[in-house]
Amino acid sequence: MKRAICVFLIVLMLPVYALAEENESITVSFIGDCSIGDSAQYMDYDSSYHTCLDQNGMEWPFSLVKEYLEKDDLTVANLEVVFTESRQHADKVYYLKGKPENVQALTLGSIEMVNTINNHSFDFFEKGYDDTLRILEEAGIKHFGSYLTTSKDGYDHLATAELKGIKLGFLGFSYPQDSDQKRIAQRIEKLKNEEGCDIVVVSLHWGRETYMTPESWQYKYAKQIMDAGADVIWGHHPHVIQPIHFYKGKPILYSTGNFTFGTMSHVDPSTGIFRITFERNETGDVEVTRLEVIPCETQRGPDYRPFVLEDEQERMAVFKKLRFKKDVYKFFDNLPESFLETGVVELKNGAFVE
């Protein structure tokens, strides 16, 4: 009788154990610059982003990659446009704007979270930025980004997401300065100690536009951010992809390139879906166990859709752009040579698994 009861209890508990094991890892996709709109003076052009959406519908921008973005646990994008009806804009060459309804492109494309702080956030002043945050919230899209943190009129939004028992925190700075190091460290500490985040992602809108490698100052800056407790640095702004570093098993994505972008001149179209897998280990800590890059190519107008590369040579060409050709900073690890063929890095206890 006792044996029968024991067998029954074991069978009863199996689904619980299976669920616990299933919930030990999550995958987050990071994609680069997404401008779901145009510089306002071009909105009515035949080849504009708005004309494209009018003709093809809101599902169009991510339609060729949506199947990949739906398979992760969370997709995060850099939103480099404001959603507003405001007409008062900053005095600059390009002032990026999307109609409020354009937010549907994100929701239909399986984008659940965005960074909102970059050099186009205030193209339509505070009114445009406030409109954007409200529209994102109404659409159910989480957002984060800090700006003018020393001013009472500043913005300081952090975001969290709990997925399968793993809690992630996100913060974002644009054009980070040395004086921002302490501010970033304070927000990392807040997310980890007050919010209970297992992982903190620091989003940095930085670097030099169209340059295929980071600037030398970024290496030291990235190390300081990692030493302050960041688990991932996710960069954007150059509009092209740049090589990847690892520091103590943690990835530094200096630039993830353009993904779908209105009003953009000719730049290298290589891009990708940067998938990072986080797993809770035997000690209860959460660590990075896998980086996978799904190589893509973005398109200019009038199409604007990124698509996944299938040709083996084209895929390897993207992987090559993501690996440093030589050691440039003694504290960091370059991607292993195997990445050039697979686009995948496996890690265990902070070390590469060959």
Characterize the biggest β-sheet: 11 strands, mixed
**C-alpha end-to-end distance:** 50 Å
Total beta strand runs: 21
Share in helix: 25-40%
Q: What is the ordering of alpha helices and beta strands?
A: HEEHHEEEHEHEEEEHEHEEEEEEEHEHEE
Q: Please state the average pLDDT score.
A: 93
The Rg value, from CA coordinates, equals 21 Å
Quaternary status = single chain
Structural classification: alpha/beta
Shape: globular
Count of DSSP-assigned helices = 9
Unreliable spans: 1-23
Strand % is 25-35%
Task: Report on the architecture of this protein.
- The chain is an alpha/beta fold.
- It has a domain of 232 residues.
- The protein has nine helices and 21 strands.
- Strands 1, 3, 6, 7, 8, 15, 16, 17, 18, 20 and 21 form an eleven-stranded mixed β-sheet that branches.
- The N terminus is likely disordered.
What's this, in brief?
The chain is of the alpha/beta class. The chain is 27% helix and 31% strand. It has a domain at 26-159 and 255-352.
Question: What tags apply to this protein structure?
Answer:
eleven-stranded mixed β-sheet, disordered N terminus, 21 strands, alpha/beta, 354 residues, 9 helices, globular, seven-stranded mixed β-sheet
Chart the SSEs and their pairings.
Elements: H1 2-22, E1 25-35, E2 38-39, H2 49-56, H3 66-69, E3 74-79, E4 82-83, E5 96-98, H4 103-108, E6 113-115, H5 125-139, E7 142-147, E8 155-157, E9 159-163, E10 166-174, H6 180-194, E11 199-205, H7 217-227, E12 232-236, E13 244-247, E14 250-253, E15 258-261, E16 270-280, E17 286-297, E18 307-308, H8 312-321, E19 333-334, H9 339-342, E20 344-348, E21 351-352
